[in-house]
Amino acid sequence: MTLAVATAAVAGVTAAAPAHTAHTALTGAAAETHGFLSPTGVEIAFLLVGLVTFGAALVTVTTRQLVHAALWLVVALGGLAVEYLLLTAEFIAWVQVLIYVGSVVVLLLFGLMLTKAPIGRSPDADSGNRWAALTVAVAAAAALVWVVVDAFRTTWIDLDGPAAGSTAVTGASLFQNWVLPFEALSVLLLAALVGAIVLSRKAKAESSSPPVNSRATPGGSPTVPNSRNHSIGRKGSVSGTDPVEATSPGKATGSAVATSQANATSPVKAISPANTTGPAVPKPASQVKPASPAKPKPTGSAETATDLAEVASGPADVTSVPTEPGSGPAEAAADGAEPGSSPAEPATGPAKQEGAP
Amino acid sequence: MHLAYPAVLAALLFCTGLYGVLARRNAILVLMSVELMLNAVNLNLVAFDVWLSEAAQDTLHSGQALTLFTIAIAAAEIGIGLAIVLAVHRNRGTSDIDKLRDTAEGPEADGPDSDAAAAQADRAGKAEAAA
């Protein structure tokens, strides 16, 4: 570092040639034909493009307009592609343009659009720990820049001669020495693709399940006005045994169907919550696929039972008439759903319990 | 070219991304900052690969191969990350990472925490009633 400073002090007042000789005398053989203050054209271009890239990156992380952040990210990534070209890595540069500018930024813009990001300025783009983050980043930048400059101050890249990173060299190396990781990477991309599809598709299937259940509504009992429960009960009774009618004495029409399913293992398997009031219950917890009778997870169905207790009514004193010995647990489950029910809403019974005989 | 130019630029870009990850609140902006950090690493890999291929007669070109791998993994990461962000936005109605505190420990038990605790207790009671 002191050598560089001394060289700069010398060269700052004199011409380039004596500075160059002093520099070579001081730094030795590693810097025979190079100097800090006689930059080549490539270095000047790298510096200018680097300034543009760094400025675009700074605007990306500090702007309050989310879409502008994505567009400034394009500038930063494109500047990095130009830097790769200046480092003679042409294949990497075009891969950068294709993948980052072409797909990643488009994905980010789609993500911003799908999450309903505000178009104008959003005042809460930065969180409260902004100054702590600034402190950490500036400290890390100072440490890294100091270490890097101190470590590589006498190191030069020789960009003359044949290009070290041309496409032919990269391709030969990639398909001779790196074939196995390359193929493994394709498997990883496939796994990531399938994972992204699964993550995006599961919620879609959940949101589309209530219309499927409400389509079977005409099979319900005519005595209950909101008879979607009964449709579920009939569906459950197809695979199970016979349904058990439980009538609430508070209302003449309010009833609940308790279906004891023969092949169920848990006493309380699934209780349909959202179907009592329609498929569009706006609570997020009700999206946990409420109406599938064969859902094997008892925890999810118990959670739907709590939702049911909020929206259902009428089952305050359900007297289930057992027609077979298997309906005992169903009665217990109906008692379990009891405390949260309010008798205000008419005719939405607590639905369907599946009990193991 | 002096090796300090790409190394210093990569360090500055990395710290810019670090600031973005720490200071941003929107999850997609955090993903953008992660992309900046990955690109800083890529610049380092390319610069040192070009240096070593001339200085140390390295014919393996591990730097460029690793850069390609990093780019592919970053593409996979951004796909999965955006899928997760969209799923969270669909369930919670927000992509604000300061509001996703379900797994946080703290003295305050408000918002989703209390709801989750109530659901837990209710679920336990339900299991008892069913047993």
TrEMBL record, chain B:
<dbReference type="InterPro" id="IPR001133">
    <property type="entry name" value="NADH_UbQ_OxRdtase_chain4L/K"/>
</dbReference>
<feature type="region of interest" description="Disordered">
    <location>
        <begin position="97"/>
        <end position="131"/>
    </location>
</feature>
<keyword id="KW-1278">Translocase</keyword>
<dbReference type="InterPro" id="IPR039428">
    <property type="entry name" value="NUOK/Mnh_C1-like"/>
</dbReference>
<dbReference type="Pfam" id="PF00420">
    <property type="entry name" value="Oxidored_q2"/>
</dbReference>
<keyword id="KW-0472">Membrane</keyword>
<comment type="function">
    <text>NDH-1 shuttles electrons from NADH, via FMN and iron-sulfur (Fe-S) centers, to quinones in the respiratory chain. The immediate electron acceptor for the enzyme in this species is believed to be a menaquinone. Couples the redox reaction to proton translocation (for every two electrons transferred, four hydrogen ions are translocated across the cytoplasmic membrane), and thus conserves the redox energy in a proton gradient.</text>
</comment>
<protein>
    <recommendedName>
        <fullName>NADH-quinone oxidoreductase subunit K</fullName>
        <ecNumber>7.1.1.-</ecNumber>
    </recommendedName>
</protein>
<keyword id="KW-0813">Transport</keyword>
<keyword id="KW-0560">Oxidoreductase</keyword>
<feature type="compositionally biased region" description="Low complexity">
    <location>
        <begin position="114"/>
        <end position="131"/>
    </location>
</feature>
<comment type="similarity">
    <text>Belongs to the complex I subunit 4L family.</text>
</comment>
<keyword id="KW-1133">Transmembrane helix</keyword>
<keyword id="KW-0874">Quinone</keyword>
<feature type="transmembrane region" description="Helical">
    <location>
        <begin position="66"/>
        <end position="88"/>
    </location>
</feature>
<keyword id="KW-0520">NAD</keyword>
<comment type="subunit">
    <text>NDH-1 is composed of 14 different subunits. Subunits NuoA, H, J, K, L, M, N constitute the membrane sector of the complex.</text>
</comment>
<keyword id="KW-0812">Transmembrane</keyword>
<dbReference type="GO" id="GO:0016491">
    <property type="term" value="F:oxidoreductase activity"/>
</dbReference>
<keyword id="KW-1003">Cell membrane</keyword>
